[in-house]
Specification:
Elements (H helix, E strand, L loop, with lengths): L11 H11 L4 E6 L6 E4 H17 L7 E4 L7 H10 L3 E4 L9 H14 L4 E3 L5 H4 L1 H4 L7 E3 L12 H13 L5 E6 L9 E5 H14 L8 E3 L6 H14 L3 E4 L1 H6 L2 H10 L3 E4 L1 H9 L16 E4 L6 H11 L9 E6 L6 E4 L8 E4 L1 H5 L13 E4 L3 E2 L3 E6 L12 E7 L10 H7 E2 L2 E11 L2 E7 L4 E3 L2 E3 L1 H9 L4 E13 L4 E10 L4 H16 L5 E7 L14 H10 L8
Parallel strand pairs: 1-10, 3-4, 3-5, 5-6, 9-10, 11-12, 12-13, 26-27
Antiparallel strand pairs: 1-2, 7-8, 13-14, 14-17, 15-16, 18-19, 19-21, 20-21, 21-22, 23-24, 25-26
Helix pairs in contact: 1-2, 2-3, 8-9, 12-13
Length: 574
């Protein structure tokens, strides 16, 4: 176990300063850019740079408690800017930078919605997108007071004289119960829910989660995850900074273009921990060529942590088969269940333990009961997300709020020492999600032998003739149809008034443009569903990158259903 003990009654800034004093020359953040020598922030140099940005923020009127939203690309100065915001008692919030994979409507709606409901005070960004953001400063109901361009500021500024006395007083006045960051729960419209977390919530969480994964001073985290998502922000950023261990930060969009960057960084930096969503395992298994693996060793890795709901066994198997000869061990493939509302993790597979896998009868899941089915190929394969970490408690409830026994499917509700206090400026959403100290996650799952399995979202379940159909199952089947772009599929329910029930609809991206070939692909998709007793009623074929994705990088069922069914947008083919 790591020797550094975290005092959860301190602030994050004081924690970072202590690490800089104890390990001044140790790598804190390794900024990774393809084809370049990595830039290395030590714990002392990043604190010094953070102080300079803090001076710039104070000179421009930023006060304690102000929310400073950063909208920036992968840049080595992002990290000290983030720390500098926190150092003066202000609250950092990381937002996604517009990019080709982020639908323009999604970005516009997101910024507009957050400018009116999240309580953002200042935007810290870059010149190229100033024209998009500047109108929000004067827009009705926007809380944004101004825009800054900190990458253009003078470096090596220092607090001196009265300014130094004032900032020391401000830092001394910051309590562990004061907010330390604002992050947005995964969403697909401008109504992403803002989650405000305290210093204590974050430090309590990283202390408990550090125990769950047996964190040591020898660990090194490797990540390409975006920092506007809790997986990247907490697991790959706040966790290592608090514990005084290095984290390697890879450009998210460079990784998408060159997936081998993660493997290269692991091999060169001797990484030990990384967190990945399902699709990343598939990309790494399918998109990395053999000539990119020359000299690569993954033997140092003790945990590849799948943080998806639900975790896909097939993704793990594909990844392991591809990289077992490069040092990947079966017991390194584990999982956790996490969300912004609980700071991050709720459950975790114990170290040196492969995530447990169950084969369950689909018909039994549809009725809310878990019946194991050996290794039958028609079963649903369920992967455990592990056991609850210290400080967390989980219950599985039926639709009336009653506790269910092990082996019964219901809604996952959570109590945690790191639980959020509510969605900022959303009292109605808070009241629906928080009840008597329990967070109603909206996820469906079950518990068996003290391990928790997440199988789908409550709001996404399709009810066909009284049976529950999980869209994840449909999407998984359709993704394997030749002609469909894997992972670029959404399934949802459409009301059928004649039958008095929902019917299953599917939207799938394809590169095929010929109308006759479309007809064949539609039939192939319907047949794929029939092979597993799933009756797909409608198929919408759309071109690549048509589907709107959530902030977590997953195609949104709700947003895409609205485009197809409600708005009936025209689908244009090149």
């Amino acid at each position: 176990m790591i020797k550094t003990m975290i005092n959860t009654n301190e602030t994050e800034w004081s924690r970072w300063v202590i690490n800089a004093e104890k390990h001044p020359d140790k790598d804190a953040i390794v900024h990774w850019v393809a084809g370049e020598e990595p830039f290395r922030w030590t714990f002392s140099s990043i604190i010094k740079a953070a102080e300079s940005f803090a001076v710039g923020l104070k000179k421009r009127g930023v006060q304690k408690g102000d929310v400073c939203a950063t909208v920036m690309r992968h840049n080595k100065y992002f990290y000290p800017i983030y720390l500098g915001i926190s150092s003066i008692g202000a609250i950092p919030a990381v937002l996604a930078y517009p990019n080709p994979r982020l639908h323009p409507d999604k970005f516009r709606q997101g910024i507009e919605g957050m400018s009116k409901r999240s309580g953002l005070d200042w935007i810290l960004t870059e010149r190229p997108i100033a024209d998009i953001i500047e109108p929000l400063v004067t827009e009705d109901n926007s809380t944004i007071r101004g825009i800054f361009f900190p990458l253009e500021w003078e470096k090596d500024l220092k607090f001196e004289g009265k300014e130094l006395e004032l900032i020391e007083q401000i830092r001394a006045s910051v309590s562990d119960t004061d907010p330390v960051l604002l992050q947005h729960s995964s969403g697909t419209t401008g109504l992403q829910k803002p989650v405000l977390l305290s210093h204590k919530a974050v430090l309590d969480h990283v202390a408990n989660y550090g125990k769950a994964i047996n964190l040591t001073s020898e660990d090194k985290i490797i990540s390409w995850l975006p920092l506007y998502h809790d997986m990247g922000l907490i697991a790959a950023f706040h966790l290592p900074l608090a514990f005084g261990i290095p984290t390697v930060q890879i450009n998210t969009f460079e990784w998408i273009m060159i997936p081998s960057l993660l493997l290269e960084a692991i091999s060169k930096e001797k990484g030990t921990l990384t967190w990945l969503p399902n699709f990343a395992y598939n990309i790494l298994a399918d998109k990395v060529h053999e000539d990119e693996l020359e000299g690569i060793s993954l033997e140092s890795m003790r945990m590849f942590i799948n943080c998806s709901e639900p975790v896909r066994n097939k993704s793990h198997k594909l990844f392991y088969k591809r990289y077992k000869d490069y040092g990947v061990k079966p017991e390194s493939l584990c999982a956790c269940y996490a969300m912004a509302e609980t700071t991050f993790a709720v459950t975790q597979t114990p170290p040196d333990t492969e995530a447990k896998v169950l084969w369950v009868k689909r018909q039994s899941i549809a009725k809310g009961v878990i019946e194991l089915n050996g290794h039958d190929e028609n079963s649903r394969v369920c992967v455990s997300s592990g056991k609850t970490i210290e400080g967390c408690e989980v219950r599985i409830l039926d639709e009336n709020g009653n506790d269910l026994e092990e082996g019964m499917v219901g809604e996952v509700v959570i109590s945690s020492v790191s639980l959020f206090d509510g969605y900022r400026n959303y009292p109605e959403k808070t009241a629906a999600a928080l009840k008597d100290g329990w967070f109603y996650s909206g996820d469906y799952g079950f518990c068996l032998d003290d391990e928790y399995y997440i199988i789908g979202r409550k709001k996404d379940i399709i009810i066909v003739a009284g049976n529950n159909v999980y869209p994840e199952d449909v999407e998984d089947l359709v993704s394997h149809v030749e002609g469909v772009i894997p992972g670029r599929v959404v399934a949802f329910g459409e009301d059928d008034e004649d039958l008095g029930s929902e019917q299953i609809s599917v939207a799938a991206e394809t590169k095929i443009t010929d109308k006759e070939e479309h007809k064949k692909l539609i039939m192939d998709i319907i047949k794929a569903g029939m092979s597993d007793d799933i009756n797909i009623k409608k198929v919408y074929l759309v071109p690549p990158r048509w589907l709107i994705k959530s902030s977590a990088g997953k195609p949104s069922r709700k947003a895409n259903k609205e485009r197809l069914v409600v708005k009936k947008e025209n689908i244009k083919w090149s």
